[in-house]
TrEMBL record:
Catalytic activity: Release of an N-terminal amino acid, Xaa-|-Yaa- from a peptide, amide or arylamide. Xaa is preferably Ala, but may be most amino acids including Pro (slow action). When a terminal hydrophobic residue is followed by a prolyl residue, the two may be released as an intact Xaa-Pro dipeptide
Family: Belongs to the peptidase M1 family.
Top-level taxonomy: Bacteria, Pseudomonadati, Pseudomonadota, Alphaproteobacteria, Sphingomonadales
Name this polypeptide is given: Aminopeptidase N
Key words, A-Z: Aminopeptidase, Hydrolase, Metal-binding, Metalloprotease, Protease, Zinc
Keyword Metal-binding in record: yes
Gene3D superfamilies named among the record's database cross-references: 2.60.40.1840, 3.30.2010.30, Neutral Protease Domain 2, Peptidase M1, alanyl aminopeptidase, C-terminal domain, tricorn interacting facor f3 domain
GO biological process: proteolysis
Known cofactor(s): Zn(2+)
GO molecular function, one term: zinc ion binding
């Protein structure tokens, strides 16, 4: 398998500048006639090379003459004598056999495409790389009854009826684009239509296309789209640039969604939502992903990536943009807490394992494996740090310069950094290391107070752990928002931004009569692991008094984490400080329910494990439950009050109402953990009487942990009510895979045989196996059956859908963090995967790197 290196970049020898595609569409035999206008790029006499992946024309003509071509490792090579030429050919493809869901595929009787990163070459041979931008015209012809709706990028320029019940439509996209943004949809679809007028007065026809019957679940997505369009005008000065914007929801999709120019294609889980079927998390997911894909119109489409090593140029920036948008639409503090939780759950383990890579990777075998939390979420943190250092006004000047300078280009991460440097007026020389160095920096912080002089100083150090291929690291530039609080005065200290650029540094904190309490990395200003010497008393004080909500959250989490880690490691640390601090926070539930719910939720089992040299999954599960029990028992009366008092509004989507619901179920969880005798009845009542999916799903999740008979009753009732709704049925699988019960591995194995389980639908695969792999103590069952289950899945899924199969491998790659027996079983699972004949490049790369 070939490794592609970033340093080997060369511009393409030939550019395709215009593309005419003529599709004769059918589910199992679609023909594509292509006319490509090509131009020699620079002065050379090299042949034209077209990337291919299975769709091979019988004849290729250059300026009308058939030419002999050769094939070499995924490319067709043909001689072209002139400077410009017209290349024509026809391919035939079978969308219904396309189980990879890359290129043109069938989903529920409709046809749709997914081309990022390298799917276009599965439709026609092409210069299939993002630095080749072309203007596309697409004609589609199909049976009108089977495919009444025909959509492609840009605008519809012609349509009409043909003989034999057939019809056609022709679309033209005026904006040059790379092939990965090509899209086409054909099927029986209905639209939720709306309109938007841009700041400069252009009317845009908006449509969200879904299957008949799903129309009344598209309102939230439409509102999110209009809000995103306005927000990008107001915050970044970016307007939409076509008179139509179409979104299509499909059920079988490898990723969340795709930002194709003028024709976004979505996994239906990020479009369809109503109160009966979607939880608050689902509603937020719809809003965030709709915004993310819309924002790509500028950060991704108008300015695209030169090559796939630059993926974070569009993804990191666009995630940062959608995070800020969601914060503006809801609660900024809660959004930041959620985003940091995701970063810690998904990216920190990646940075600390065999698959660690910089946000701008140096090499890959299969680019699909690099759509990672590092490229996306750490990439967003890197953009956020730049914004923090220069402030909103200067950051906007930087992004204005970036968009203006690179509009219509395929740019690099370096182009972005340079635009921020010039536009915002800041030197980012050292900061650039965030693009090239992998690994999460560890920063220690220690406050030193001199009683005699009454001054305090902050001593900082940074180290960046070695990662694959990067044994030695240089110190990075780390922006740290800090404050020193004077406990005696009971007033928050003023915030300062410390730029830590050395391995060691000291900062003066000013004059204090007593040692100040340090509020560190406020708002999580840098994506680091902070090691702060603080006592439980200071943490409890910060949890109650810090003026930065994230720091308040973080202090309570740190207190919980310290207690859990100490106990899991065999100490007998008391629960008292945590129980008291949680009680103190719970007491203010009525004034800020959303924050209280975030702060009082215990750190996940996996995050506790991440703090330990060797993860002990069973002890972590036991101790986490024990701490919940202490909290639940001590505060039982208050928790009952909260549970009763938060059962107010089941469906309103305001931050307060969402916070109430989160708190409602947190209270239920803690009451269950307290061993209250009526917990099953209480949970079942919440389940049965729920006015919306948030309360219903959370109650079901808690019931799923129980031994009580209410558990099966609720699972059966949920199945009976929702088994026709695939997105809700996914929740039924997930809930059982997340169960804390000892029999979860067997339950998962049985669910894999359930008639509703299928390897054909990526959402279903993730709903069962993705959830199970995230259930630490169950997946890491000492028997190794969890590992065997995941390996069986990867082996069975790889021939059908290598991309989704490869995404299941990273949990097995964490073997270095576990005891010898588990580590051996995990390695055996990886080895068994690698011994499978005809393994895809996707799975081979992930499994072999995971073993190293
Ligand atoms: N750009 C797409 C990613 C598609 C990747 C497929 N291998 C989704 C997004 O980030 O918006
Ligand atoms: Zn994206």
């Amino acid at each position: 398998i070939r490794t592609i290196h970033r340093s080997d970049y060369q511009p393409p020898d030939w550019l395709v500048e215009t593309v005419h595609l003529d599709f004769d569409l059918s589910l199992d035999a679609t023909t594509v006639s292509a006319t490509l206008g090509i131009r020699r790029n620079g002065s050379h006499d090299r042949p034209l090379r077209l990337d291919e992946d299975g769709a091979i024309p019988e004849v290729i003509r250059v300026d009308g003459k058939a030419v002999a071509y050769t094939r070499d490792s995924g490319q067709l090579i043909l001689p072209v004598g002139s400077e410009t030429a017209t290349v024509t050919f026809t391919t035939t493809i079978d969308p219904s056999a396309n189980t990879q869901l890359m290129g043109l595929f069938a989903s529920n009787g409709m046809l749709c495409t997914q081309c990022e990163a390298e799917g276009f070459r599965r439709i026609i041979p092409f210069v299939d790389r993002p630095d080749n931008m072309a203007v596309y015209t697409v004609r589609m012809e199909a049976d009108r009854a089977a495919f009444p709706i025909l959509l492609a990028n840009g605008e519809k320029v012609a349509e009409g009826d043909l003989d034999d019940g057939r019809h056609f439509a022709e679309w033209h996209d005026r904006w040059p684009k790379p092939s990965y943004l090509f899209a086409l949809v054909a099927g029986q679809l209905v639209a939720n239509r709306d309109s938007f007028t841009t700041a400069s007065g252009m009317d845009v026809d908006l449509a969200i296309w879904v299957r008949d019957g799903d129309l009344d679940r598209t309102g939230h997505a439409m509102q999110a789209l209009k809000n995103s369009m306005r927000w990008d005008e107001q915050v970044y000065g970016r307007e939409y640039d076509l008179p139509v914007f179409n979104i299509v929801a499909v059920s079988d999709f490898n990723m969340g969604a795709m930002e194709n120019k003028g024709l976004n294609i979505f996994n239906s889980r990020y479009i369809l939502a109503d109160a009966d079927t979607a939880s608050d998390l689902d509603f937020d997911g719809v809003e965030g992903v709709v915004a993310h894909e819309y924002f790509h119109n500028w950060s991704g489409n108008r300015v695209t990536c030169r090559d796939w090593f630059q993926l974070s140029l569009k993804e990191g920036f666009t995630v940062y943009r959608d995070q800020c948008f969601s914060a503006d639409m809801g609660s900024e503090a809660v959004k930041r807490i959620e985003d940091v939780r995701i970063l810690r759950a998904a990216q920190f383990p990646e940075d600390n394992g065999p698959l660690a890579h910089p946000i701008r990777p140096d090499s890959y075998q299969e680019i699909s494996n690099f759509y990672t939390a590092t490229v996306y979420n750490k990439g967003a943190e890197v953009i956020r740090m730049m914004a923090t250092m220069v402030g909103p006004k200067r950051f906007r000047a930087g992004t204005d310069l970036y968009f203006d300078r690179h509009d219509g280009e395929a740019a690099t991460c370096e182009d972005f950094v340079r635009a921020i440097e010039e536009g915002a007026g800041i030197n980012l020389s050292q900061f650039r290391l965030w693009y090239s160095q992998a690994g999460t920096p560890h920063v220690t912080a220690r406050v030193e107070h001199d009683d005699a002089s009454g001054t305090a100083a902050l001593h900082l150090t940074q180290t960046i752990p070695a990662t694959p291929g990067q044994p030695d690291k240089q110190p990075m530039l780390i922006p740290l928002r800090i404050a020193a609080h004077d406990r005696a005065k009971n007033a928050p200290g003023s915030e300062q931004l410390v730029l830590l650029g050395e391995a060691e540094a000291s900062v003066s904190l000013g004059r204090f009569s007593e040692p100040p309490v340090l509020s560190f990395n406020r708002g999580f200003s840098a994506p680091i692991i902070a090691e702060v010497a603080r006592n439980p008393g200071d943490l409890a004080w910060l949890a109650a008094h810090d003026d930065d909500p994230f720091a308040r959250y973080e202090a309570l989490q740190a207190l919980m984490l310290d207690t859990l880690v100490a106990r899991v490691s065999g100490g007998d640390a008391s629960h008292d400080a945590v129980v008291a601090a949680v009680g103190n926070t719970l007491a203010s539930w009525a004034s800020d329910p959303a924050f209280v719910a975030e702060a009082c939720a215990l750190p996940s089992e996996a995050f506790v494990g991440d703090q330990m040299l060797v993860v002990d999954p069973d002890a972590i599960r036991r101790e986490r439950r024990a701490l919940q029990r202490s909290i639940g028992q001590t505060h039982e009366a208050l928790l009952r009050t909260i549970h009763a008092g938060t059962a107010t509004n089941a469906t309103e989507l305001s931050p307060t109402a969402k916070g109430m619901r989160k708190l409602h179920s947190l209270a239920l969880m803690l009451l269950w953990a307290s061993d209250a005798a009526d917990a099953p009845a209480l949970a079942f009542a919440q389940f049965a009487q729920a006015g919306g999916m948030t309360d219903r799903q959370a109650a079901l999740g808690i019931l799923a942990h129980m031994d009580a008979p209410e558990r099966q009753t609720a699972l059966d009732a949920f199945y009976a009510r929702y088994h026709d709704n695939q997105l809700v049925l996914d929740k039924w699988f997930t809930t059982q895979a997340f169960s804390l019960r000892a029999d979860t591995p067997e339950v998962v194995a049985a669910l894999a045989q359930h008639p509703d389980f299928t390897l054909g639908n990526p959402n279903r695969v993730r709903s069962l196996y993705g959830a199970f792999a995230g259930n630490q103590a169950s997946f890491h069952d000492a028997s190794g059956r969890g590992y065997a289950l995941l390996a069986d899945l990867v082996i069975a899924l790889d021939p059908k859908n290598p991309q989704t199969a490869a995404r299941m491998i990273p949990p097995l790659g964490r073997w270095k963090r576990f005891d010898e027996s588990r580590a051996r079983l995990m390695r055996e699972a990886l080895e068994r995967i690698l011994e499978t004949p005809d393994l895809s490049r996707d799975v081979t790369e992930q499994a072999s790197k995971s073993l190293a």
